[in-house]
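Journal club side-thread
Mid-discussion, someone asked how the predicted structure for our own chain would compare to the paper's figures. Pasting it here so we can look after the session.
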Amino acid sequence: MADQYSRTRLLLGDEGISRLRNARVALFGLGGVGGYAAEALARSGIGALDLIDNDTISITNINRQLLATHSTVGQYKVDAAAERIKDIDPTIRVTTYKTFYLPETAGEFDFTQYNYIIDAIDTVTGKLALMEQAQAAGVPIISCMGTGNKLDAAAFEVADISKTSGCGLARVIRKECAKRGIRKVKVVYSKELPLMPDVDPEEPVPAGSSRRSLPGSTAFVPGAAGLILAGEVIRALAQGH
């Protein structure tokens, strides 16, 4: 009998769909990258999604974030995502956390309950804390490196953090992982050289950022990274890895 997952079932089979329906994935960050990852996870039938982000949608998010429309400006991203997922598949169990993930907030989460963790957050300290918690819990994690100031959506690669090159953020994370004994972290990264953004002096600057550090972004580069993140997770879970 046809259902909303019939076309996915043609590729993953009944067993693959069953594994996805029984999986619980934690997605940290619902911006330009994480919003597209959430969409793909929901449309693939992941049974339970934990969404973690404390930010609200702003007008400047509309150019690149799937959850951002004029009707959602001002909403919490986790609330907008939960509502969208409910409309895609009301049987998916969604748990939301209006939390800015840092080492100080790591205790709010029981990482052992997840089958996979997706890191789509921006801070180095948060990324490293997620990697440490995932390793301690024995849960696989995939992390997105930098997507700002880039234009080539086809340049993304998937590799272990120890095998990356040509990405400034990956270099920092790679060195810290080596220092902390963090191993086997899959990442999505690009070797494309970032452009220098032409910053508008009237552009509002988000809290915690400087005008110099404010990155440019497009509708397609963060989304491509988010879909790659989700695709890696979906394939791994469907295949029982």
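Post-session note: Strands lie at 24-28, 48-52, 93-97, 116-119, 141-144, 156-160, 186-190.
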